[in-house]
């Protein structure tokens, strides 16, 4: 083996990896192509089953996206797959792609250490946003759409707004970099990332709904966002940019 080939192989071993586990070729290929376009800093690998992970011990696997289709989280095959991932990729976060979007399924996934619960009913932009959140150490679990629509103060995600958050120009990013969130605004933002409506945020933080709305307006203004979902993604985009610019191995802390 010549020196050039050796350097290429050694370099590849240090590239962070995201693995897609999907038994069906067509959806697996579609997901693969989208993620390779959206997450260019990662090597995206695809496998039909988790058994392919047994040869990944030398790779820096950051996230495993496991498709379970219609299976419940408690299905023995899903339990076995999660255990296999934990054994062979102990440092990787796990996100589940499920055909279900009910609250019991989401809670069951979280109880098993899953960091991302992604119903197949979500727009692709939201799925990408959820994966980005998991990759920087967060947890993504949307509330069921039917339940969220019944909650007062819920602002449903706008897929176009989500897309524009990823495509924001340098001027918008610079404006966010110059801004800072107060500690209370950071608390509200953390609840927004969980998809909570104003009423639940107010109850959780022991604030009035009007105060929560005021904080959200301030967050949107500081992030140059048109809605709350875009504000969350722009703030996350800012954090990712700082992480790449300063220290790839350490997640940045929000400004205070």
From TrEMBL:
<feature type="region of interest" description="Disordered">
    <location>
        <begin position="237"/>
        <end position="256"/>
    </location>
</feature>
<dbReference type="InterPro" id="IPR036388">
    <property type="entry name" value="WH-like_DNA-bd_sf"/>
</dbReference>
<dbReference type="InterPro" id="IPR016032">
    <property type="entry name" value="Sig_transdc_resp-reg_C-effctor"/>
</dbReference>
<dbReference type="InterPro" id="IPR000792">
    <property type="entry name" value="Tscrpt_reg_LuxR_C"/>
</dbReference>
<dbReference type="Pfam" id="PF00196">
    <property type="entry name" value="GerE"/>
</dbReference>
<feature type="domain" description="HTH luxR-type">
    <location>
        <begin position="174"/>
        <end position="239"/>
    </location>
</feature>
<dbReference type="InterPro" id="IPR011006">
    <property type="entry name" value="CheY-like_superfamily"/>
</dbReference>
<keyword id="KW-0238">DNA-binding</keyword>
<protein>
    <submittedName>
        <fullName>Response regulator transcription factor</fullName>
    </submittedName>
</protein>
<dbReference type="InterPro" id="IPR001789">
    <property type="entry name" value="Sig_transdc_resp-reg_receiver"/>
</dbReference>
<dbReference type="InterPro" id="IPR051015">
    <property type="entry name" value="EvgA-like"/>
</dbReference>
<feature type="domain" description="Response regulatory">
    <location>
        <begin position="1"/>
        <end position="135"/>
    </location>
</feature>
């Amino acid at each position: 083996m010549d020196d050039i080939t050796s350097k290429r192989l050694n370099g590849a071993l240090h590239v962070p990896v995201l693995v897609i586990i999907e038994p069906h070729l067509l959806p697996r290929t579609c997901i693969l192509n989208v993620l390779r376009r959206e997450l260019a800093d990662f090597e995206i690998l695809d496998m039909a089953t988790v058994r392919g992970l047994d040869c990944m011990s030398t790779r820096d696997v950051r996230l495993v996206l496991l498709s379970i289709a219609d299976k419940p989280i408690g299905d023995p095959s899903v339990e076995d797959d999660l255990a296999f991932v934990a054994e062979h990729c102990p440092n990787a976060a796990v996100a589940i792609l499920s055909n279900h979007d009910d609250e019991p399924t989401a809670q069951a996934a979280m109880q098993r250490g899953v960091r991302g619960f992604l119903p197949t009913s979500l727009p692709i932009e939201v799925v990408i946003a959820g994966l980005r959140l998991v990759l920087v150490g967060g947890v993504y679990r949307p509330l069921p759409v039917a339940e969220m629509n019944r909650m007062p103060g819920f602002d449903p995600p706008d897929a176009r707004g989500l897309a524009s958050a990823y495509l924001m120009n340098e001027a918008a990013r610079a404006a966010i970099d110059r801004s800072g969130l107060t500690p209370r605004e950071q608390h509200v933002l953390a609840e927004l990332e969980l998809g909570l409506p104003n009423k639940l945020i107010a109850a959780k933080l022991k604030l009035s709904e009007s105060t929560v709305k005021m904080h959200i307006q301030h967050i949107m203004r500081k992030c140059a966002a048109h809605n709350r979902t875009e504000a969350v993604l722009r703030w996350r985009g800012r954090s990712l940019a700082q992480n790449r610019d300063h220290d790839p191995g350490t997640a940045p802390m929000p400004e205070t």
